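Tip: read the tokens left to right.
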């Protein structure tokens, strides 16, 4: 049995780790469910503020992972999320390399759907990257993406945690203005979407100054590259106006059937051995005593009675006595 956090969450195995903490698969003993849990690795004010911020982001959307519950022990804080069992887009790229253009269009569209809901709630995610794009285990079927990790998300109209020129985010996915510490804006998330889409097309993380390949025609790949170029413009004003506007450019790409030469991409269940938790312990009900006949086999055998003394010697003595008496009487009377 692993460590039990706050008397409720049994830590089963570590799924991932990062600068902000570790992700575990846990058993929630309150309801017997398997969940994912994030445990903060620090207890400084900034980390706690990020925890409060992430815990407060509760967006009910099919492509967003929403926190469920939380607990704190000493200098550690834990909160749980649904366990998304198919890994991440980062895992997919490691295993398959460049993804088919149709898959890139599908995953980009689902990411934009998630950002539509996030931006509508007045929040900027600020850390869109392949490792934060989780996948349901759909096998060889159509993928199902879920955006997670709102640890550095920021409301558009509320005070920021940092000021000045401090940049918060992941290098390679942040737009120039985020590097300069600009106020949170949804256009920064759209820039990151463009970088992620480019990475899915290339099968590797592009370097910071790597130019986007020029579209050469009107194929699915070319149209995706055109969208990537517009989303990653240095000036936010030159990018698509919103996640909805970006989705409109993908509308006819996400319904394309697979081509005969399309490589098979599989999103497996990465926790196939996660057996359901055992039922809670219940004492056995008292049972009726066994009948006597049922316990005979367990009784010691009855003692063997001692052998009785033989009666033959006694009879001989009696007969000898009677003969002696008869002989004496004959002598006296004779």
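Filled-in amino acids:
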């Amino acid at each position: 049995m692993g460590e039990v956090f706050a008397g409720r969450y049994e830590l089963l195995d570590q799924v991932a780790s990062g600068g902000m903490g570790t992700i575990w698969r846990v058993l929630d003993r309150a309801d017997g469910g398997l969940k994912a849990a994030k445990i903060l690795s620090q207890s400084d004010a900034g980390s706690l503020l990020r925890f409060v911020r992430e815990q407060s982001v509760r967006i009910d959307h099919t492509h967003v992972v929403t926190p469920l519950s939380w607990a704190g022990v000493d200098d550690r804080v834990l909160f749980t999320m649904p366990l998304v069992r198919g890994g991440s887009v980062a895992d997919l790229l490691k295993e398959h390399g460049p993804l088919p253009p149709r898959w890139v269009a599908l995953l980009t569209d689902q990411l934009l759907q998630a950002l539509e809901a996030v931006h509508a709630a007045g929040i900027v995610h600020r850390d869109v990257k392949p490792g934060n794009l989780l996948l349901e285990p759909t096998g060889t079927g159509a993928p199902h993406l879920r955006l997670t990790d709102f640890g550095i998300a920021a409301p558009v109209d509320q005070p920021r945690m940092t000021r000045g020129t401090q940049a918060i985010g992941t290098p390679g996915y942040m737009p120039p203005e985020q590097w300069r510490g600009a106020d949170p804006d949804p256009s920064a998330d759209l820039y990151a979407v463009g970088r992620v889409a480019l990475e899915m097309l290339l099968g590797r993380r592009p370097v910071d100054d790597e130019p986007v390949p020029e579209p050469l025609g009107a194929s699915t790949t070319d149209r995706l590259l055109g969208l990537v170029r517009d989303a990653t413009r240095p000036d936010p004003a030159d990018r698509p106006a919103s996640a909805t506007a970006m989705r409109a450019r993908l509308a006819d790409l996400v319904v394309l059937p697979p081509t005969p030469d399309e490589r098979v991409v599989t999103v497996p269940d990465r926790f196939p051995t996660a057996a359901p938790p055992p039922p809670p312990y219940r004492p056995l009900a008292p049972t009726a005593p066994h009948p006597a006949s049922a316990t005979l086999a367990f009784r010691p055998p009855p003692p063997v009675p001692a052998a009785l003394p033989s009666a033959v010697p006694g009879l001989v003595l009696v007969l000898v006595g009677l003969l002696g008496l008869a002989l004496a009487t004959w002598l006296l009377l004779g």
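Residues 89-250 form a domain with the Transferase(Phosphotransferase); domain 1 fold (CATH 1.10.510.10). Confidence is low (pLDDT under 50) at residues 290-301.
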